[in-house]
Amino acid sequence: MTDQLSLIVTGGLGNMPFAGVAWQVLHYLEGFRRLGHRVFYLEDTGAWPFDPERGIVSDDAGPALAYVRRMLKRVQLDDAWAYRNAVDGRLHGASEERVRGELECADALVNVSAVTVLGEEHLRVPVRIYLETDPVLAQIEIAQGDERTIRLLGAHTHHFTYGENFGAPDCRVPLERFTYHPTRQPVVLDWWMRRRGDRPPRRSFTTVASWKQTYKDIEWQGEMLTWSKDVEFERFLDLPRRVSRPLELALAIDDDDDAITRLSAAGWDVVPARPLSDDLDRYRHYLRFSAGEFSVAKVQNARLRSGWFSDRTACYLAAGRPAVVQDTGFGNILPVGDGLFAFSTLDEAAAAVEAIESDYDLHARSAAELAREHFAAEVVLGRMLAAAGLSG
């Protein structure tokens, strides 16, 4: 059992007001709070506010501030947060004096997704946790001598990563300069679990994804490694013809009509992701009442076998929804074959979906049990704090 700690969690709620990001940050805030710790949320990313209503970057911080307030009210942190507007440098929420006091008395700072470049004021905190939710890119940049990335990580005392397969014989992610502690996404289970009287799930396996993202592409050892999913989805285009369950993709696809036409012709149902990303409860409802998840991974994680596992998939499991997801090396760490399946080929993907079809109730129960054992926020975060030397 840990003594009560004063924790500062830095995140990007106002900069990235999307449901997947919000649920990720809220799981950390609520998980630490349920462990009995004192939690303060700080957003100081240096990025301009994002207006969630118009879907654009804006010089008006009002909509972003309203969004941050709504999110933090969900975890009873109405009066324990601060947001710095990068446009004019003004602090909203807590005062400058309050923030200085929080930094001076904090036991640890947890930099979720490393969205905050730590400055002198943050270096007062004795334990500064770099929490990497998207591995691979930073490790390659460090191996290439990128000074900006080296400074970013070097400002932290402890480095945690969702790359749970780092250092394994089949992992090709270069590891230099820093020691990485494995961790995974915490999930507040009761936010996702099925309730008595819930209607049965739909027949469709679903996922929520961005189709094409190239701004984090990087070349490594003569190979272009994209941060995008479209390349991997194309490899499994024929899957709907091989399985009896309908497959649906909620995609942020930027009006790529050719891709939508190809997916639809191959038997995929395609719906827009934006309505789900804009509404936390609608996003959660979509996951909870799907039959399960089918999804691929970004090329960087699939090719180099980092062991990365999706926040979204962990939420499907917590809802008792089986998942069939592309193997990134997580099959070396998590139990697969009951409720959770890892695939690398089209044949493996089809076999996994049909295995779930053969005894759906068994795999639904197994999914929920796997979430309880491996993703419960109190367990995941308790281990992380212990690995950072913060156990009582």
How far apart the termini lie comes to 6 Å
Shape: globular
Name the average pLDDT: 94
Computed CA radius of gyration, to the nearest angstrom: 21 Å
What's the arrangement of strands in the largest beta sheet? 6-5-2-1-7-8-9-10
Q: Largest sheet, if any?
A: 8 strands, mixed
Question: What is the fold-level CATH name, i.e. the topology of the largest domain?
Answer: Rossmann fold
Structural class of the secondary elements? alpha/beta
The counted number of beta strands is 18
Segments where pLDDT lies below 50 for 5+ residues?
A: none
CATH class category of the largest domain = Alpha Beta
Tell me the domain tally. Answer: 2
What is the correct CATH architecture of the largest domain? 3-Layer(aba) Sandwich
Helix content: 25-40%
Description:
There is one protein chain. With 392 residues, the protein is of the alpha/beta class. It folds into 2 domains: 193 residues, Rossmann fold (3-Layer(aba) Sandwich); 186 residues, Glycogen Phosphorylase B (Rossmann fold), CATH 3.40.50.2000. The chain is built from 14 helices and 18 strands. Strands 6-5-2-1-7-8-9-10 form an 8-stranded mixed β-sheet, sandwiched between helices. A 6-stranded parallel β-sheet has the order 15-14-11-16-17-18, with helices on both faces. Strands 3-4 form a two-stranded antiparallel sheet. Strand 12 and strand 13 form a beta hairpin. Helix 1 packs across helix 14, helix 11 packs across helix 13 and helix 12 crosses helix 13. It is globular. The mean pLDDT is 94.
